[in-house]
Automatic annotation (TrEMBL), chain A:
The keyword Ribosomal protein does not apply. Signal peptide: none annotated. This is Pyruvate dehydrogenase E1 component beta subunit. It is an enzyme of class 1 (oxidoreductase). It comes from the Bacteria. Residues 4-179 form the Transketolase-like pyrimidine-binding domain.
TrEMBL record, chain B:
It comes from Planomonospora venezuelensis. Residues 31-266 form the Dehydrogenase E1 component domain. Keywords: Oxidoreductase, Pyruvate, Thiamine pyrophosphate. GO terms for biological process: pyruvate decarboxylation to acetyl-CoA. It holds the Pfam family E1_dh. Its cofactor is thiamine diphosphate. It is an enzyme of class 1 (oxidoreductase). This is Pyruvate dehydrogenase E1 component alpha subunit. GO terms for molecular function: magnesium ion binding; pyruvate dehydrogenase (acetyl-transferring) activity. Its EC number is 1.2.4.1. It comes from the Bacteria. InterPro entries: DH_E1, PDH_E1_Alpha_Subunit, THDP-binding. SUPFAM superfamilies: Thiamin diphosphate-binding fold (THDP-binding).
């Protein structure tokens, strides 16, 4: 066991993947000498060379497009999008090429590209450094969309994403980059498959569905609710597409109440899909409608206002009250 | 940095004369021509639906390039790509089955006219998208397969897309074996090039320090002879933009031609098909009828096949 931050866990996971497979490449803006703005790729270029850790021009479409071309030739590129808001110039390549080529070719083309995106707010940054664009990608057939929430999962999930033959959009909760945990870096298997959800805190009264940065917020809410005698179950979805529907619906059928918590705007957000799905599959088990806690439909605000934007413990607990009051 | 290949003038006719083609080149040109005409016929009869983009008038571009590209090279095509595919593989059955959704389709009938994948060949209908992908393939080829190149076909309209410039920058920066073939037919769907492009393709290539060749000729032998050394230099990691001044005979897709009758007539007058028939009537007629009959036979055979069957990927 080693004590690692989430950022360092990702770094160690990528390092392991690069040691295991010479076809693994890392590319992106300032990922080499600098090691990325969050230092997630720190030291990789020094150890693996400029041929495998490629500093690219500021050209997100070019980065993802080049990665697709490299993947066509057998590489497994791991692309860093420096900030969530910078993924939009790459959207054309991700949505129109990366997601669709394997489907159009009936699986003849494998595109094992990982698109790493630091996501979400909470670090006092500007709008386009604080966004949660996951719903754009969950809506796109052909992409796996995953989000890690803690150092242990960061270490394993990045390696699983790199090994996977499908394109993966990999969201990293940037405000949790510096949180630490004990990580077992000796094991190479026996990991929970990365498309499976995990119940991170069992409970009996309400199911809280979260991913990425909101998992910790939900755990804090569950601890606070316990003092009021309410037992909250927290499910870390980990994979948004495909969705581990069995774990989700099993939980909701047991508790009868469900909240979905994410930073992204509620309107048209991933929570809407979860609410609809749970309503379809668990209707007769529900004591209350599925409630959503998330951001308002506005651009992400200036940093001095972000605490009003981001869901926090109080907003989660308010929603728990509403679920009970229904 | 820009060099222009000016057609040799035939003084008697007052316009460029086309040199006599090798039989297989003429056969391929006619295969592409009659394939495209057959598609339009099938649409007219309701046997195909949706739409398509024919390369009528531009067939000579991929035919001229055919022997300059080797099996290790990777070709990226676009929405107007039937000629590119047929010049690479000669596989009229597979392509027509793909477009008609019949058994034997190249991609199970899922890709259709614009999205065809085969070993070393990939097309997409979205303008400019292929360039960064071709840059990635070229990066691999530079590292591991010296002497091979990535060739990407684009049009004049494609130069409006930002992805083109991201890729050109990478190609020049990383010395990629990238051959960009521009089929400049003077019109982007309905918008004349002069109304949508500031400056020139040559100027844009020059901005990246990338060599540019302008090809005005439609003479397959001449183009091939002139381009051979330039393409060889691409294989050494010197990216190249080759701009063909060409002519789109038909509409962008179907029924959307906004050009004046004079402009369409000018395109027809430049058509290699009529010019070759005029310059080499015996050779032309020996192959033209059989090519039409061959394509009709392909169409009849493919149309009679059962629908292509496929299942979504796991």
């Amino acid at each position: 066991m080693t004590t690692l931050t989430l950022a360092k866990s990702l770094n160690e996971g990528m390092r392991k993947a690069m040691e295991d497979d010479p076809k693994v490449l890392v590319m992106g803006e300032d990922v080499g000498k600098l090691g990325g703005v969050f230092r997630v790729t720190d030291g990789l270029q020094k150890d693996f060379g400029e041929e495998r850790v490629i500093d690219t021009p500021l050209a997100e479409s070019g980065i993802i497009g080049t990665a697709i071309g490299l993947a066509l030739r057998g590489y497994r590129p791991v692309c860093e999008i420096q900030f969530d808001g910078f993924v939009f110039p790459a959207a054309d390549q991700i949505i129109t090429q990366l997601a669709k080529m394997p489907l159009r070719s009936l699986g003849a083309l494998k595109l094992p590209v990982v698109v790493r995106i630091p996501c979400g707010g909470g670090i006092g940054a500007v709008e386009h450094h604080s966004e949660s664009p996951e719903a754009y990608f969950t809506h796109t057939a052909g992409l796996r969309v995953v989000a890690c929430s803690n150092p242990v999962d960061a270490y394993t999930m990045i390696q699983q994403a790199i090994r996977c033959d499908d394109p993966v959009v990999f969201f990293e909760p940037k405000r949790r980059y510096w949180e630490k945990a004990e990580v077992d870096t000796s094991a190479a298997d026996g990991w929970l498959p990365f498309d499976r959800a995990r119940i991170v805190r069992p409970g009996t009264d309400v199911t809280l569905l979260a991913y990425g940065p909101m998992v910790k917020t939900c755990l804090e809410a569950a601890a606070a609710a316990e003092e009021d005698g309410r037992s909250l179950e927290v499910v870390d979805l980990r994979s948004l597409n495909p969705l581990d529907a069995a774990t989700v619906t099993d939980s909701v059928r047991r508790t009868g109440r469900c909240l979905v918590v994410h930073e992204a705007p509620v309107f048209g957000g991933f929570g809407a899909e979860l609410a609809a799905r749970i309503t379809e599959e668990c209707f007769y088990s529900l004591e209350a409608p599925v409630l959503r806690v998330g951001g308002p439909s506005t651009p992400y605000p200036p940093s001095r206002l972000e605490e009003h934007y981001l869901p926090d413990l109080d907003r989660v607990l308010d929603a728990v009250d509403r679920a009970f009051a229904f | 940095m820009t060099e222009t290949l000016v057609p040799a003038l035939d003084p008697a006719a007052g316009r460029p004369g086309l040199s006599r083609l090798a039989d297989d080149d003429l056969e391929l040109l006619l295969l592409i021509r009659h394939f495209e005409l057959e598609l339009l016929r099938l649409y007219g009869r309701g046997e195909l639906n949706g739409t398509t983009h024919t390369c009528l008038g531009q067939e000579y571009v991929p035919v001229a390039l055919r022997p300059l590209l080797g099996p290790a090279d990777f070709v990226f095509s676009n929405h107007r790509g039937h000629g590119h595919y047929l010049a690479r593989f000669g596989d009229a059955h597979g392509l027509l089955a793909e477009i008609m959704g019949r058994e034997g389709a190249v991609c199970g009938g899922v890709g259709g006219s614009q999205h065809v994948h085969r070993d070393g060949y990939l097309s997409t209908g979205v303008q400019g998208e292929s360039l960064p992908v071709a840059a990635g393939v070229a990066l691999h080829l530079r590292r591991t397969g010296p002497g091979a190149l990535a060739c990407v076909y684009i049009g004049d309209g494609t130069w409006g897309e930002g992805a083109v410039y991201e890729a050109l920058n990478l190609a020049a920066l990383w010395r990629l074996p990238l051959l960009v073939v521009v089929e400049n037919n003077g019109i982007a769907q309905s918008t004349p090039t002069a109304s949508q492009m500031a400056g020139t393709v040559a100027g844009r290539a020059a901005a990246f320090g990338i060599a540019h060749r302008l090809v005005v000729s439609a003479d397959v032998n001449e183009i091939r002879r002139e381009l051979e050394p330039a393409v060889a230099r691409v294989r050494e990691g010197r990216p190249l933009v080759v701009e063909f001044v060409t002519h789109r005979l038909g509409p962008h897709s179907k029924g959307d031609d906004t050009r004046s009758p004079q402009a369409i007539r000018a395109a027809q007058e430049n058509d290699w098909y009529g010019r070759y028939a005029h310059d080499h009537p015996e050779h032309f007629h020996r192959f033209d009828g059989p090519a039409r009959a061959r394509v009709r036979g392909v169409a009849d055979e493919v149309a009679a096949r059962p629908p292509s069957r496929w299942s979504p990927c796991a």
